[in-house]
Amino acid sequence: MKKMNRLFFAILSCSIFLASCSDDNSVDEGDVSLGQYEDGVFVLNEGNSNPTSASISFISNSGVLENDVFSNVNPVQVSTGSYLQSMFFDESKAFIISGQANKITIVDRYTFKFIAKVDANFTNPRYGAVVNGKAYVTNAGADWNSASDDFLTVINLSDYSTSKIAIGNWCEKIIEEDGKIYIMNGYYDSGSAISVFNPNTNAIEKVIELGFLPTSFEEENNILYVVGPGKLAKINLSTNTLATSVNLPAGAKNLDIDNNKIYFTVANAVYEMPTNATTAPTAPIFSYQSNSEFGAMYGFAVKDDKIYIADAGDFASNSKVYIYSLNGSLLKTVLTGVGPNGFYFN
Fold first, then answer.
1. Which of 142, 203, 252, 303 ranks highest by number of CB atoms within 10 Å?
2. How confident is the model at residue 19 (pLDDT cuts 50, 70, 90)?
3. Which value, to the nearest 10 degrees, does the dihedral of the CA atoms of residues 169, 174, 175, 181 take?
4. Strand, helix or coil at 271?
5. 3-class DSSP state for residue 87?
6. Number of helices followed by number of strands (H, E) in the chain
7. With helix as H, strand as E and coil as C, how does 182-238 read?
8. Backbone angles phi, psi at 70, to 5 degrees
9. DSSP structure class, residue 23
10. Strand order of the sheet with strand 161-166?
């Protein structure tokens, strides 16, 4: 799950100046609202082969649910397309990736008003990140079983023109840190590395071999934590070298970090450990029940002392999001759209 930036702003001479960013917004009394979606979490509902089945839900910090946000705000716009893969952000915009439509829909991240669509130079787009006025989007290519046709799409955010950069390795999840882009080279049981991409040279400057299939990663305090089946690797981003690794239970998949704690999942269970731990926990915080054959723990995030779990159900009907406390107490169950697969915090 992806980290986002916090905007601190003040009213000066009737203008709003954006100063810095982090995971969420702090709105002080007297500040001007950026929009009705500035405080809460978006839930991306993947949908299925029906182009109208995908949607985006929003859960406010006060717990109010709104389903189908994009259509509510933009009733005359063409839909985002189905098989929604992921979302990513810059300071003011949200980028919604549709793998089926091979396009990105761009909206204001706080009002969700439509800005533009980009549909050139994509083949099965997956994840994205923004650095220096450009968006970089991973593509799986036409052959899901081969890494040879995977590539990056580069979007110039000044005019939304696009170009392609061949990578020659599996292109999956992607994050930006200190001007570099880190690409997870692995999905569908293939791949075993992290690539370091330099946007200044448009080239891979290093490939960090892991020795296992990466399924999720997260940066915290200049350390990149990478989880995969039975393993957690820690990469020092100052040197881009593998610092250490910890054995995890087999089947470890999702990963998130909050307040110097690592949270990961195995099947339907959630585990927690300190970021400096050298051994894995032997028992989970909690487990939840799911009847979904493929959609159990389909989305996962930890934020502000809450654990978010998305269960995709049958991928044909509206599905459930569960919100837990850090000790595993169920706080809320929310009915969202079809196949929720990720959480994105404003």
1. 252
2. very low
3. 30
4. strand
5. strand
6. 1, 30
7. EEEEEECCEEEEEEEEECCCCEEEEEEECCCCCCEEEEECCEEEEEECCEEEEEECC
8. -60, -45
9. S
10. 125-131, 134-139, 151-156, 161-166
- For the chain, the residue count is 346
User: For the residues of 323-341, what is the DSSP string, one character each?
Assistant: EEETTS-EEEEEEEEESEE
Mapping DSSP to helix (H, G, I), strand (E, B) and coil, where does residue 70 land? helix
CB 170, CB 188: distance < 8 Å: no
Angstrom distance (rounded) from CA 344 to CA 346: 7
pLDDT in tens, 31-76: 788 999 999 999 999 999 998 999 999 999 999 999 999 999 999 9
Token pair for residue 218? 């997260």
Task: Report which of 227, 209, 205 is spatially closest to residue 218, judged by C-alpha positions.
Answer: 227
Q: How many CB atoms lie within 10 A of CB 116?
A: 14
pLDDT at 321: 98
What is the average per-residue pLDDT within 124-152?
96
Identify residue 269 by its one-letter amino acid code.
Answer: A
Q: Count of alpha carbons within 13 Å of 38, Cβ hemisphere only? A: 16
Report pLDDT for 223. Answer: 97
Least Cα distance to 35 among 16, 63, 55 occurs for 16
Proportion of the chain above pLDDT 90, given as a percent:
87
Token pair, residue 95, equals 């980028």
| pLDDT tens digits along 233-292 | 999 999 999 999 999 999 999 999 999 999 999 999 999 999 999 999 999 999 999 999
As a whole number, the mean pLDDT across the chain is 91
Q: How far apart are CA 237 and CA 140, in angstroms?
A: 25
Residue carrying the six token digits 């991409």: 197
On whether the CB atoms of residues 38 and 21 are closer than 8 A, the answer is no
Residue found by looking up tokens 């950026």 in the block = 34
Given the DSSP bridges, would you call strands 330-338 and 318-325 parallel, antiparallel or unpaired? Answer: antiparallel
Per-residue model confidence as pLDDT tens digits over 318-345: 999 999 999 999 999 999 999 999 999 9
Do 25 and 16 touch, CB atoms closer than 8 A? Answer: no
Contact 151, 167 (CB under 8 A): yes
CB 331, CB 316: distance < 8 Å: no
In DSSP terms, 98 is beta-bridged to 84, 103
